[in-house]
Amino acid sequence: AEPKIRPRSATIMAGVFDMKRAADIGGDKFVPAFLGGMPNEVPGRYEIASPIEYLPLDVPLTALHGDADQTVSVNQSRVYIDASTKAGSTDPELVVLPGAGHGAFLDPKNLAWSTALSTITGRAQTLL
Length: 128
Description:
This protein is an alpha/beta fold. Helices cover 38% and strands 12% of the residues. The chain has a single domain, classed as Rossmann fold. It has helices at 19-24, 30-35, 43-49, 74-87, 111-126; strands spanning 10-13, 61-66, 92-97. Helix 4 links the parallel strand 2 and strand 3 (92-97). The longest helix is centred in the last third of the chain and has 16 residues, at 111-126. The chain is globular and about 45 Å long.
């Protein structure tokens, strides 16, 4: 697709970057429910839905993830940023937040909230 508006940077909080990994290794129950089956049952859906399949990226990306996330493993972000770097993506960055859980990004009093805010505004400043 050729979108009319193209992103200039991305900040992802506690993202699921590899749907197959989430379902097979991570034991994620939401991904198979969302995609209508396990990776061996609907492999094409997993390929289309997984951001890791679309590397390299031509925009700066920051993955923010708490190391206490019990919903989405921090390894999703670690593996994605490693693959992104190896693929030659533009400026991939991983920020692991000690003690932050999955919902920490929703709490304005949490460090995860302020980190997300400063990351997004910081990236925007460099793009002016």
